[in-house]
Amino acid sequence: MTTIKVIELIGESQKSWTEAVENAIAEACETIDGISGVEILSLKGTVRDGKIVEYKANVQLAFPVRDKREQNL
Predict the structure, then answer these.
(1) Predicted local confidence at residue 23, as pLDDT
(2) CB-based contact 19:6 (threshold 8 Å)
(3) Are 36 and 47 contacting, i.e. CB atoms less than 8 angstroms apart?
(4) In the predicted model, is pLDDT for residue 27 greater than 90?
(5) pLDDT, the chain, mean
(6) With contact defined as beta carbons under 8 Å apart, do 24 and 10 qualify?
(7) pTM of the full predicted structure?
(8) For 34, which DSSP code?
(9) How many domains are there within the chain?
(10) Closest CA to 40 of 59, 53, 23
């Protein structure tokens, strides 16, 4: 039986909401193994002079909980 953990993150980009989601996933992958799903909760942006200058994506990422703890030798 697999237990899944879900965490919530906010990714940021200066180019697009897609890149903001991808940035959140890429950064999480640096410390979390086995990410298997993403849910986009909301998309927000910062506007200056009539243009979007920062894109933010609030996401939930899912990954399996490990069966056993790794032992540091």
Answers:
(1) 98
(2) no
(3) no
(4) yes
(5) 93
(6) yes
(7) 0.85
(8) -
(9) 1
(10) 59
| Residue reference for tokens 């991808």 | 22
Angle at 46 between CA 44 and CA 49, to 5 degrees: 140
Burial of 59 (0-12, 13-18, 19+ CB in 10 A): buried
Q: Specify if 55 maps to a domain.
A: yes
What's the pLDDT at 71? 64
2: confidence class by pLDDT, cuts 50, 70, 90: confident
Q: Which two tokens stand for residue 8?
A: 């919530």
On whether residue 70 sits in a domain, the answer given is no
Q: Where residue 11 sits, what CATH number does that domain have?
A: 3.30.1660.10
| 3-state secondary structure (DSSP) of residue 29 | helix
